[in-house]
Amino acid sequence: MTRTVSVTPFKDQKPGTSGLRKKVPVFQTPGYTEAFIQSVFDSLEHYQGKTLVIGGDGRFYNREVIQTALRMAAANGFGRVLVGQGGILSTPAASHLIRKYEAFGGLILSASHNPGGPTEDFGIKYNISNGGPAPEKITDAIYARTQVIDRYSIADFADVDLDALGTFEGGGMTIEVVDPVADYAALMETLFDFDAIRTLVAGGFRVAFDAMHAVTGPYAREILVRRLGVDPAWVLNATPLEDFGGHHPDPNLVHAKELHDLMMGPDAPDFGAASDGDGDRNLIIGRGVFVTPSDSLAMLAANAHLAPGYRNGLKGIARSMPTSGAADRVAAKLGVEMHETPTGWKFFGNLLDAGRCTICGEESAGTGSDHVREKDGLWAVLLWLNILAVRKQSVMEIVEDHWAEYGRTYYSRHDYEAIDTGQANALIGALEGRLDSLAGHRAGSLKIAKADSFTYHDPVDGSVSRNQGIRIFFEGGSRLVFRLSGTGTSGATLRIYMERHEPDPARHGQETQAALSPVVEAAEALADIRKWTGRTAPTVIT
Ligand code: VG1
Ligand code: CO
Question: What pLDDT, in 10s, does the model give residues 518-542?
Fold first, then answer.
């Protein structure tokens, strides 16, 4: 039996970079989750009888929302749902399932790197048939629908046993509970030389992986431990927990500090990595060397041809605007297209579909390729291991060789989290108002060459996305970017991205923050960060 239930429209702000993210109690408000899912379905056409993929990162409230989504998918006329066993699917694995089984789309339940638990974060995102996040045209339609929605449809059937693999029927719809790891692991075997990595590991190369009590635990156990021989004792925090053990599953230098300290210590393994809540991010640390995500993108692109899946070279490289220019230098050398997109993986989808890039990355620890349409944490780990196995060098040697060839791009991001939304908007507004008059002026010790607000023209479908961040270019090549986060759930988060390119190998040994201090000073001089945020220092420095 199918029921139609009345709901009230949302009064929320527009959802940000990755779908709807709110505190769990908001999703628990009667009708709220249902109204959002119905708004998604109402924004789609011609899905009757087709397949939907559903899975999440296992955080608190995942199972409840999956049961609701199953009943609503049945009531709205989907023919089949593929759902990960235990309600689990990493974001890249969900993307792969959508593609492999030619599904109409998917619902991914995650708030990614945000904390989980009864009073923490939850999220819902819709992905389209190419496996990637819905483009702005669809997310705008979903948002518009949430503003007027007045009812949802739901079928009545008992909870599906998500822990049992198999095929079930509910409300006239087929429900298949599938192994969340198997298809993904098989895909990885097609891209990388598992034999070479196994030989590397068997030869004593020690790999540490921190799953942060999030979704990648089962993937790491199957791929790294069972298939590649990594010592299980070095797969840390491998059991997914609904509250991620009380931590932020965010693989950065603050939340993955233990791994960082281990890698900088005397008994460091050869290679350390971590992934986030939903498995799409990666942190790469060699013994004694942290690889910034922007550098990792450049280094992976420069060496990708060493892995079987990329033997024929790259069609192009894409990076989000705030990501450093390190990858641009690799693209120039390879003679391939380089694309600069707004923040958020959805902007890579068209380029990947059109065959205009093979590897993409974001400074926020996201790297991936055309194998799926999401960033992919374990993929980055495996590509690094494949490269290490072929080059037979340490991470440090690969990093230093890269800098010697291309120069080093010092890079850092300073985040001011949970600041007042009005003040954050005022800071950005004040900067925007002055953009046209900044060129030629000094900010601290640096001279401004150009300042603008980033607008993206999608070369594939011609769509235009404005106000994607403020860029300040300095004479001598340093760059500063200001933007507000679209994924936070408490107040606003101001992100300030800083970079400086240093061609001289004699100057490659500087400490990052020291090397960037002129850019940090310029940021304060330009934006009065202390005044607007009331803070004397960032909450997170990565
Ligand atoms: C952040 C990152 C962005 C990333 C997004 C989703 O967005 O900066 O690069 O694509 O999170 O990542 P924002 O708007 O807060 O800066 V994930 O791992 O949360 O899906
Ligand atoms: Co994520």
Answer: 999 999 999 989 989 989 999 999 9
